[in-house]
Amino acid sequence: MTEIVNKASLKTVLLQHIDCPLCRCKKCHKVVEATDHQWGIEGRFTVVQCDQCKHGYMNPRPTLETLAACYPSDYGPHQLQPAAVLPLDDSTTKNHAAVSTPWYLRYLPLRYIPGLRRFFYWLTDERSQVTPSPFVVNSRPGSGASPQAFELGCAAGAYLARLQTLGWQVAGIEPGDGPVKMAQAAGLDVRQGTLDTVSIEPESFDFAASWMVIEHVPDPRTTLTQLFTLLKPGGQLAISVPNAGCWEPRIFGANWDAWDLPRHLHHFSPGSIRRLLKECGFQEIQITHQRTLLNIFGSVGIVLTRRNPANRLGIWFLRYPHSPRLLVQLLAAPLAQLLAFFRQGGRLTITASKPQDAKSPSANQASVEPETST
Question: Cβ contacts of residue 147 below 8 Å, gap of 6+?
Fold first, then answer.
C-alpha cells in the first residue's frame, strides 16, 4: 500500500495493486508512468496493460475509500452550471435558439449568405454528446407519454437541463456534494451517490448517458451492466471516453493530457470499449470519433509547463480544455475534422441499445476475449 497526499486539500490518497478489473488476470506490463499535471497530487502513477485482455488501467490505483481525495473542490468538469430549468413552451424554445445562434449570424448581413449557418454548425459540432429527441422515444411501441432520461456522473446537471428543455423527464446521480447542490438549486432531480448507493427501479429509463465518466469508475463492467439494467427494453445508451487507441498517447507519451492520473482509472480503445459493451448485453454499438483537439491543447500545455511552470503560453494551453473559445474552435476545426475522418480522434462518443427481449447479464459472468486490433 502506497500513501500520497493531495497538497491542495491535505487529504491522503492510498494506492493499492489490483488484478485486471475486466478479466481478473494478474499479469500485466507497464505502458507509461506519469504525474498529475492538473490538480497537484504529488507522486508518480502507472498505467499498465493486461497481458490477457489487453485492457489499459491504472495500477496501483487509489483505494475505494480514498478515491474522492483525488478530486479537488474546483475540479473543472464539476464547475459547469446549468441554467435554471424553465417550463418548455414556445418562448423557451425561441430563447434557446437565439442563445445558441452565434452573434454574427444573428446581427450581421452574413446570416443571409446561403449555407453559412449550416457550415457554422458543421464546423462547431464536435459530436461530443448526443441529444436525442423525446419524440423518437415516444414513437416506439409500448413507450409512455413521458420519456425518461438518466445521467450517471451528471456533475452540476448542465446536460440534464438541456434534455429537460427538449421535453425529457430527467434524473441523475453525482458523487460530488458541491455539484449536486448546484443541480438541485436549478430544479433538477439529482441525487448524491453512485449506482451502488442509490436505489433505482430496474427498467426505469428510455435513455441513459454518461459523459467522460466510465474511465473514472473502479469497475466499468459492473457500471455498464447496471446501466443496462436501468434501461427499458429497446432503451438507448450514450457514453464518451478518451481514446487511448489513437496517435496522441504514442506521440505525447507521459505528457498526454487524457491520462489524467490518478483520476482516470481506465484507458479504452475503440475495440476494447466495443467488446465490453457487447459483453454487458448491448447491441447496435456505434462509435464516433469526436471532432475536437482538446486533448492536444492540454498535452501541449503539459509539455510547455513541465520545465517552466510559469510559462504563460503553456498555462493557456493547459487551461484551454476547461474553457474552450469559439474562435479557437473554428480555427482548429479543419484538423479536428480530418483526424476524426481517419478515425484518430482523441475522444470517442459511443451509442448502443438494449435488445427488446434482453435479460440483464451478471457483471461477473460476462465472457472475456483477447482484444484484436482495429
Answer: 134, 137, 138, 167, 168, 169, 206, 207
